[in-house]
Automatic annotation (TrEMBL):
Cellular component terms (Gene Ontology): alpha-beta T cell receptor complex; external side of plasma membrane
Source taxonomy: Eukaryota, Metazoa, Chordata, Craniata, Vertebrata
Biological process terms in GO annotation: cell surface receptor signaling pathway; positive thymic T cell selection
Keyword Membrane (UniProt): yes
Superkingdom classification of source: Eukaryota
TM region(s), chain numbering: 13-34
Xref: PANTHER family: T-CELL SURFACE GLYCOPROTEIN CD3 GAMMA CHAIN (PTHR10570:SF8), T-CELL SURFACE GLYCOPROTEIN CD3 GAMMA CHAIN / DELTA CHAIN (PTHR10570)
Name of the protein this chain belongs to: CD3D protein
GO molecular function, one term: transmembrane signaling receptor activity
Keyword line: Membrane, Transmembrane, Transmembrane helix
Protein's UniProt keywords contain Transmembrane helix: yes
Length: 59
């Protein structure tokens, strides 16, 4: 049928699927941790500085 095809058994396919799911979960957790650190860092910086001066509020 196909001269260049490779026959793959069920164990190989299931191993690829499991590895893909584990890699996806690892990547999702890494993105969540990195974005969570940026959010806390930005909120701390905004707490320490005045964003609008009081004199400019009612002009």
């Amino acid at each position: 049928v196909c001269q260049n095809c490779i026959q793959v058994d069920a164990a190989t396919i299931s191993g690829i699927v499991v590895a893909d799911v584990v890699a996806t979960i690892f990547l999702a957790v890494a993105v969540y941790c990195i974005s969570g650190q940026d959010r806390t860092r930005m909120s701390r910086a905004s707490d320490r500085q005045n964003l609008i001066a009081n004199e400019q509020l009612y002009q």
